[in-house]
Amino acid sequence: MNFSPIDYVVLAVPLVVVFSVSIYLQRYMRSVADFLAANRSAGRYLISTSMDAGGSNVMSLLVAMEVFSQVGFSLTFWANLTAIFFFFLGILGLVSYRFRETRVLTFHQFFEVRYSKGIRVFASFLNVFSGIFNFGIQPAIVARFFVYFCGMPEVCHIGGVEVPMFLPVMLVLMGASLFFALTGGQISVMVTDCLEGVISAIFYLIVGIFIVCVLSVAQMRGALLSGPPGASYVDPFDIGSRPDFNAAYIFFGFFLSLYYFRGNAWSGGFAAAAKSAHELRMAQILGNWRALSYGQMGVLVSIAAFTVLHHPDFAHQRDVVAQGVQNISHPTLRSQMSLPMALGLLLAPGFKGAFCAILLFGVLAAQSGQLHGYGTTFLQDVILPLRKKPFEAKAHIWWLRVTILGIAVFVCTFSYFFKPVEYLTMIVSLIGAIYLGGVGLVVWGGLYWKKGTTAGAWAAMCIGGVLGVVFNLVQELWIPLCHLLTTWFGPVGAVGRFLAAYPERSPFNGQELTAITAATAGIAYIVVSKMTCREDFNMDAMLHRGKYRISSEDIVVVSSKKKSWYARLFNIDEHFTPGDKTLTVITVAWTFFWNAVAIGIVIWTLVVGRLSPRWWFNYSMITGVWVTLAIGCVTTVWFTVGVTRDLKALVISLRKARRNDADDGTVRGHHNTGENPIVESATEIK
C-alpha cells in the first residue's frame, strides 16, 4: 500500500504551486479588512470554488463513507428529495444576501449591529468554544486516515522515543494550514482554497473514471444488493428499520438545516469577501453545480470501499484490511479506518496520489478556513468589543495571528486525546449544538424580523449553550451516569428497565438531542422577543437601503420594466445580467426535473407498489454516478475559466484598492466605523 514515486510527484507538484501563490499574495495584505475579508473584492467563481474546496476534506469523506457503509444508497434518495428546499433558499439568497448588505467584516459583528455588544461577545465565545472542540475532533482522525490510506507504519521513532505515526502527520498538516491562515489572512485562505478546488476537480474526474473502469457494475450491484430483507442498501423505503439513520434522522436533519441555515460563523469570511451581495448570491447558485462534482466523488469512493469490504471477489483485500486495523483497540476508530485502507488497496499508483492530493487539499482548505474563522472570531468578536481603545493596524494583525496560532495548539492537543463514542456525524451535530442550537433564530430574526430583541437573543443563546453542554456531557459520560441512575431508581421500576435497555449508549443520539436544543432555544427567542419589544428595529439602516444606500455597490441601473413571473418567483432583481438569469433558470429547471422524478417514484410506490432492489440500484447509479460524472466534466472546464477571470480581477482590485484603517470591525451606535471606504490607509502591514 506504500506510495510509489509517481504518487509523490502527482501530490507534490500542485502543492508547490499552491504554496508559491500563497507566498506571492502576501504583498497584497495591507490592512485589517484585507486579512479578514480580502477587502471585499472577490468574484462569484472565486467564492464558490474556495468555499466548496473544504467540502472534499477527509472528515467529510469519512462521514459520507461511514453513513454509506451503514445504509448505502437508501438514505441518499430522501436526502436529495429534501435538498430542493435548501436549493431554493440559496437561489433566493436568503440570509446571505442580507448578511452581505450589512457590510460587516465578521459574522458576529452583525450581532452587535443588530442586537448588542454583549450578544456579540457571548455568541462569539460560544462559537469558538463549540467550534474548537468540533474542530478538535478532526486533526487526529484526518492524520490516521492518511496513515492507513498511504500504508504508513503505525509508530515511528523520534529522538529515540516511540510515538504514534499519526502525531507527526497531524502536526505537519496543521503547520501547512497555519501557513495559509497566518501569511495573507483571508486573501491567502480564499485564493489557495480556490486553486486547490480547481486542481481537485481535475483529479476528481481522473479518480472517478479509474474507479468505474476497475470495478464492474456487477460487482457494485452484488455488494449493494447483499443487505438482508428489510434492510436494503438501495431501497429507500427500508430506511425505517435502521436504528440510527432512519426517518427520524431525515426529519431532524431537515429541521436543523433549516434552523441554522447559513448560521455557521467560520465561513463568514468568505461571505464578507464578496464584492457585492449579488456576487455572493450568484456564488451560491454556482455552488449547486460544484456540489454535484463533490457529491459524485463521495458516492464513488464510498461504493468502492463498500464493494471491497462486501463482495467475495475482494476476500484477500478484506483480510488485509482486517489485519491492518487489528491493533486499534477502539471499535469505532477501527471501523472508520477500515474504509480508507480498503480504498487504498483498490487504487493503482498515480491514481492513489491523485486521490490523496484531493483529500490533502481539502484538509488544508478546511483547516485553514477554520483556523482563520475561529481565530478572527475570538479576537474580533470577543476581545475587540471589550477593549475601550481599538488596536493600531499593525498590532491588530499581530494579535489576529496570535489567536489563530492559539486555536491550532488547542485543537491538536484535544484531538490527540479524543476518542469518538458514536458516528462522526452525530458527534459533530451535538458539539455544534452548543452554539448552533441557539443561533438559528437569532440570525433569521435579526435579518428578517424587526421585532426581534436583544433579550430574545440572550434567552436563545443561553438556553442553547447550557443544553448543548449538558447533552454533550451526558453522551460522553453515559455509562457511569446510567449506572448511577440505576442505583438510584432500582432495576425493577419503569426507569430502571428503561436504563437497563441502554447500558452502553445513550437512548437518544446526537442529532435527536441537537433538535431538542434548537427547538427549545428557538421558542425562547420568539416568546421573549414578543414580551420585550418596545420599538421596531431600523432594518433599512442596518441593510444600507433607502436613504442609507451606499452608491459604490450599485453595479446595475434599475430597470423600469415590469418583472416577469419567473423573476418575481425567484427574486431576480435589477442586478441580474441576461447570463445570470439564464443560469438561474437552468439551475432551477434541472433541480425541478430530478425532484419531480423522485416525487413521481414516491407516488408510484404508494399507489402501484414497491419497485425491485435491482431497479433501485440502477436508478441510484444513474442519478448518483453517471449523470454527475458527466456534469463534472463540464463544470471542471467551466469553473476553471471562471476562476481564472476572478483571480485576475482580485489581484487588480487589491493592487488598486484604497485602504481604510477604520474599517476594522469596530461598531459604534449600531453602525460599522469604516462604512465609507474612501480614506487611504495610513499604514502598510507586513
Number of helices: 27
Radius of gyration: 25 Å
Unreliable residue stretches: 555-560, 676-686
What shape does the CA trace take? globular
Summing up helix and strand content along with how strands pair, one would put the structural category as: mainly alpha
How much strand content do the residues show?
under 5%
Query: How many strands in all?
Result: 4
Q: How much helicity do the residues have?
A: 55-70%
- How far apart lie the N and C ends? 44 Å
**Main beta sheet, described?**
2 strands, antiparallel
Question: Mean of the pLDDT scores?
Answer: 79
Short description:
The chain has helices at 5-25, 32-37, 44-53, 58-71, 76-92, 96-101, 109-114, 117-149, 166-183, 186-214, 217-224, 247-259, 268-272, 277-310, 315-324, 331-346, 351-383, 393-417, 424-448, 454-476, 478-489, 494-500, 510-532, 539-543, 565-569, 578-607, 613-656, and strands at residues 155-158, 161-164, 667-668, 671-672. The chain is mostly helical and 686 residues long.
Description:
By secondary structure, the protein is mostly helical. The protein is built from 27 helices and four strands. Helix 1 runs antiparallel to helix 10 and helix 3 packs parallel to helix 14. Mean pLDDT is 79; it is low at 555-560 and 676-686.
Map the helices and strands:
Elements: H1 5-25, H2 32-37, H3 44-53, H4 58-71, H5 76-92, H6 96-101, H7 109-114, H8 117-149, E1 155-158, E2 161-164, H9 166-183, H10 186-214, H11 217-224, H12 247-259, H13 268-272, H14 277-310, H15 315-324, H16 331-346, H17 351-383, H18 393-417, H19 424-448, H20 454-476, H21 478-489, H22 494-500, H23 510-532, H24 539-543, H25 565-569, H26 578-607, H27 613-656, E3 667-668, E4 671-672
Helix pairs in contact: 1-10, 1-17, 3-10, 3-14, 3-27, 4-14, 5-12, 5-14, 5-26, 8-9, 8-16, 8-17, 8-18, 8-19, 8-20, 9-17, 9-18, 10-14, 10-17, 10-27, 11-14, 12-23, 14-16, 14-26, 14-27, 15-16, 17-18, 19-20, 19-23, 20-23, 21-22
